Amino acid sequence: MTVSLHQLTNLTTQLSQLEPLGLFKSNDYPYSVSEADLEIISEFFPTPDIFLHYIEKRLEVHRLSARVSGDELDLFGAYLDTRFVNRQLWDDPTHNINGFFLDGYSAQFDQWAFARWRNLGRLPDIQLRVPSEALDFLIQLKDINTPDARRAAKSILELSNSALTLFSQSIQKIILSPPPPGTTRSFSSNIEGTLVCLVCSAAPPPPGLSEQLLYRASLEDYRIKSRRTLGFGLAINDKKTTIIDIFVREEPWRQDPQMDAFLASDRANPLPGSIMPKRNDPCFCGSGLKHKRCCLSRIRRLKTAE
Predict the structure, then answer these.
(1) Cys-Cys with 203: which of 32, 41, 233, 237 at CB 3.0–4.6 Å?
(2) Model pLDDT for residues 129-155, shown as the tens digit of each residue
(3) DSSP state of 176
C-alpha cells in the first residue's frame, strides 16, 4: 500500500501503464491512494476487517482482464454498494466487456465533506450496504479479535447480497423463536455453496454450547460437502444475539470413514429448529453413553487431530 500527497485520479487503477517507465515489471501493483482520499474513506469503515477486505478487492482490480477506470472515491462508493462480489460489476462472464468507467459514486462524499467542513449539521448517511444483522455480526467479530473471527468476517463480506439476505433472515428467525432456557437449537442452510450453521440458546448459554456448535457444524459440513462452512454459537437475550463461539472451515472435502460413521449414527433431526441433546443427556447414536462422552467427544478428538 502506498500513500501519496498527490491526487492519483484514474491512475490508481492503471498502474500497468507505468511499466514502460521501468515500474512494476513483475506485475505486482500496490494499492495506491492519496492522503486526502484515505482520510475521507477511513471515516466509513466500522471495523478494520472491512478496510482490509476493501484493500484486497482494490488489489484485485489490477488483475482484471477488463480495464477499470475511476478515481478512488468512485471505487470506494462502488465497494460500499457491492463489495465487488457476486458478479455485480465487472466479473460477469455473460458479457464480453473490456472496460468499465465508474462515475457518480463519489458525489455522496462531496456532499458529506461539504456538510462536515461547513458545520451544516446532519451529514449524509454513507455506510456499507449490508443488512443490519450482518453488520452487527461484523462489529462483534471485531471485538472478539481472533484468527477465526477475522476469517468469519471475511466470509461474511464475501457473501452476495442475496446470500446476506438469507443469512440475516436466519438470524431473525432465531430471534423470533428462541429455544427454551437450558436447551439449544440449530439452524443450517446452504447459501450459494457456503454452509451457515447457527447453534443458539437463551442467555445465559448452557455449558457445552461451543462443543455443540463444533459437533453440528462439523457434521453438516461433511454431510453436504460444502466448500466453506461458517458457524456461530449464539446466546439470545432481549431480541439480541451475542456470538459465543465461531466455527470456520475452508478446506476441500475429503472422504473420512470416521465422519461416515458419525453420520450413520446421527439421529438428531438436521432440519432447522432441531434441538440438540445436552452434554449429560444420552447420546442420540444409541450407545447408552452420555453425549459428552460419545459422539461429541469423538468429533472433538477428530478435529484436534486435523
Answers:
(1) 237
(2) 999 999 999 999 999 989 999 999 999
(3) H
